[in-house]
Design a protein that fits this description.
The chain has 207 residues and is mostly helical. 71% of the residues lie in helices and 2% in strands. A two-stranded parallel ribbon has the order 1-2. The longest helix is centred in the last third of the chain and has 24 residues.
């Protein structure tokens, strides 16, 4: 796993390219009469930084070149037994994913939508890792999806004690939740495989 300082540098170097996009996005929503609550806006900024963090930790954008060199493990549960620490970290890494989605978007208060989205996001990570950015492992899919489920459970328990008026302030208003999450994810992947490696290796001269 990368050192914390390295994770921060690499994730922030990607995050700076979505920061103005988010400002523009929320400005346009306000102009179109779909103004979002301040709590929702701040939490979306945090959620997007978290997504950059996931890709950084999983090795996406670590090298400045792309070459198709898949290292694939299709044997389930084997690495979970041989590397329990990595298994726990993979679960923990995706817990916020399962928590943020239902907290921010009404469509994701359905656990099936959360699990499907978490699984597809994790699958996308595993596919991108085939381009010399890590190993593709079916166990990662299993543990990441388990983390998403735990994150949803945490949200569900919190929603039982959180006042309705406060919970609603976290939720989006009059937007297509699925499309928004999809566009965020696609944009973040693009940044992490194109601009972020250039910033790290060419601009900051970090190996």
């Amino acid at each position: 796993m990368l050192p914390i300082s390295d994770i921060l540098i690499r994730s922030i170097s990607g995050y700076v390219f979505i920061f103005p996009v988010l400002i523009l996005y929320f400005s346009l929503l306000k102009k179109w009469g779909r103004k979002q609550n301040l709590i929702h806006i701040v939490t979306v900024f945090l959620f997007c930084y978290y997504l950059f963090g996931i890709l950084t930790v999983t090795g996406i954008g670590y090298t400045s070149t792309m070459s198709f060199r898949p290292r694939i493990s299709l044997i389930p549960f084997l690495s979970m037994i041989s590397g329990p620490i990595d298994t726990i970290l993979n679960v923990v890494l995706f817990v916020p994913f399962g928590f943020f989605l239902p907290l921010l978007y009404k469509k994701y208060r359905n656990i099936r939508n959360v699990i499907l989205t978490g699984f597809l996001f994790s699958l996308s990570v595993e596919i991108v890792q085939m381009f010399d950015w890590g190993a593709t492992d079916i166990n990662d899919l299993i543990t990441n999806t388990a983390g998403v489920c735990l994150g949803y459970l945490a949200y569900y328990l919190l929603s039982k004690v959180l006042p309705d008026n406060l919970r609603k302030q976290f939720q989006s208003n009059n937007v297509n939740d699925v499309v928004v999450v999809l566009l965020f994810a696609i944009y973040i992947f693009i940044i992490m495989v194109t601009v972020q490696p250039w910033v790290i290796h060419s601009l900051l001269n970090i190996e």
